[in-house]
Amino acid sequence: MIDYLIYVILPQVLHGLVWGTVIAFIALGLTIIFGLMDIVNFAHGEYYMVGAFMGYTVMSVIPNFWIAVPVAVASVALLGLFTEFILFRRLYGREPIFHLLLTFGLGMMFREAAQLIWGAETKRIDVPVTATVEMLGTVYPVYRLLILGIGICVILLIWYVLKHTSAGAKIRAVAQDRTMAWALGIKVPVIYTSVFMCGVALAGFAGVLMSPINFVYPTMGIDVILRAFIVVVIGGLGNVMGALLASLMIGEIEALASIWISPTIAETLVFVILIVTMIVRPAGLFGKAER
Amino acid sequence: MAKLNSGSNLKKTFLVHAIILAALAVLPLFLNGYHQKLAVEAIILSVFAMSLDLVMGYAGIATFGHAAFFGIGGYAMGVMLKFLFPSLWLGLILAGFCTAILAFFIGFVSIRAKGIYFAILTLAFAEVVYRIIFHSYNTPLGGSDGLVGVPTPVLHFWLFDVDLTKTINFYWVAVVFAYLSYMTCKLIVGSPFGSILSGIRENENRVPFLGFNVKWTKVTAFVLAGIFAGFSGAMFTAFKTYADTEQLNFLLSGKVIVMGLIGGIGTLVGPMIGAVVITILESIVSTYVRAHHLITGAIFVMVVIFMPKGLLGLFARKDRNNNGS
Q1: CA–CA separation, B39 vs B43, rounded Å?
Q2: How far apart are CA B50 and CA B266, in angstroms?
Q3: Which residues of A touch B204 (CB under 8 A)?
Q4: What is the greatest pairwise CA distance in chain B?
Q5: Which of the listed CATH numbers 1.10.10, 3.40.91, 1.10.3470, 1.10.472 matches domain A10-280?
Q6: What is the torsional sign of CA A51, A54, A59, A60?
Q7: How confident is the model at residue A239 (pLDDT cuts 50, 70, 90)?
Q8: Where are the domains of chain A?
């Protein structure tokens, strides 16, 4: 019994935590962007994909993972800046369905472009930290724990910036009432652009962090984006804390369920959870009743 | 609106319909085999796009899982033709039946969610359907390989049979199918029920005060849209002789919304034109450019940014104002 807990359950719980953190990275970006500018970013997963591919590219030139990470994040942020400036900016104030469609088309373009540039076959980055650590007798790779640690730090940083800095106060003000915020002299477009950049950079960060564990391929964003959507909706659109809790929940459920049932069914289970949640609480598990 | 039409107006409408039908009927005589096939596909997809208009254009509900009905309709037709009985009629009936049940279930469950939540919820439902069929390896549905080897159905009319293996015959059947679907939807939209739908789109909160049930109206519209999507999916499978998971994929759900937007939603004809335009465009682009998704995606982006009211919206604005009164 104890053995079962240690050798089967514990690694899966950790896997679930790591996976949950990665989903949280993407979901946080999604939900903050939605909460602030009403954009449902369907192409968010593609920024994740671009992050992974940029990491791969840098690694093939300079085989140092710790150089690849910042370069990948920076390039994704730059891509975010461009797309926001050229495309998203034109749609502010329109219904969210238009953003869904815009980003849908954008996602198509990104996937195809990635396939043209890097090819359709899956790629893999070598794990930068190959050491393992022994916990209660079970062996666990350090790199995954490292992701977990980085994830917690980044999430705490986001929380700190949003709650305790003047920039965070401005962001919250714009999210609450953009006209009023504008009238008080907050430069709303600058806030929009910078938040969008940070949001997609977060997705790119997740992409490059996960690339040594998962494979890198042009459609990798789709798998992640659907999960992130589920998480965001379960948590309540625009609700940061809800998204965080929901990501960990989904990560754990998926990891633990795949002990007993096949991973593909565990994936479907996630969708079923979303549907049940929406029936019981249409505004999300952690959301307020009506917006 | 229909009652206000004077006699001469009715005559004019009749004339326009006759001319369009005649033009569509002779069109394949000038096309080669490949283009005929493309035309059949475009016409079948136009019904799919029109069905979406019932919910999106008239009831004003954005759904992002419409491909589920198209795909299930296709699979129903495939199962009927391959395993049960090779009749187009029975296939259509089964497709309508299955999609009606599915649409009722999805609609009933999701209708409480508003706006973008509804879109995401329908997306999730469609994704569940997609995944279930995608992973059904050991069943007759064939999992990710799709349901292949569907025989071309026999179409019995009262006295004679139509040979559907000839593309040109299928084309004419598809035109009739699309026309009948269009007229039915037109009837639905013009009926009191259609007025309630438009009322819901314009102001959902006031409709209950007029004594109508918003929830059931929406669910009914959703089911009707699902049935027509199922019909078109069924025709698609009958024509292509296979049903595969791409017909269920969320990419198709997105594409059909773009078809609607390109044509202009809330017009019924608009989405049909949009579907034809997109189908032709995709075929042209994919002939000349290897990375055709890049171009298609760019077109989607352009449409959303520059033409939120669609092609028809550029011209038919006046007409829509009249409808509102």
Answers
A1: 6
A2: 9
A3: none
A4: 60
A5: 1.10.3470
A6: positive
A7: confident
A8: 10-280
Give the one of B251, B298, B305 whose C-beta lies nearest to A109's C-beta. Answer: B298
Say which of B110, B293, B296 has its CB closest to residue A278: B110
Residue B22 φ/ψ, nearest 5 degrees = -65, -45
Do residues B278 and B259 lie in contact, with contact meaning Cβ atoms separated by under 8 Å? Answer: yes
Phi, psi of B85 (to 5 degrees): -155, 125
Distance, C-alpha A161 to centroid of its chain: 18
pLDDT in the model for residue A66: 87
- Test A275 with B135 for CB contact under 8 angstroms: no
**Contact (Cβ atoms closer than 8 angstroms) between residue A275 and residue B128:** yes
Q: Is B179 buried (19+), middle (13-18) or exposed (0-12) by CB count in 10 A?
A: middle
Give the mean pLDDT of A15-39: 87
Structural domain boundaries of chain B?
Answer: 30-248
Cβ within 8 Å, pair A112-B125: no
* Predicted local confidence at residue B318, as pLDDT: 44
Asked if A45 and A228 touch (Cβ cutoff 8 Å), the reply is: yes
DSSP SS3 for B237 = helix
Query: How much is the pLDDT for B314?
Result: 56
Task: Please give the pLDDT value at position B313.
Answer: 59
- Predicted TM-score (pTM) of this structure: 0.84
What is the C-alpha separation between A233 and A285, in angstroms, rounded? 8
Strands (E), chain B: 147-148, 155-156, 161-162, 242-243
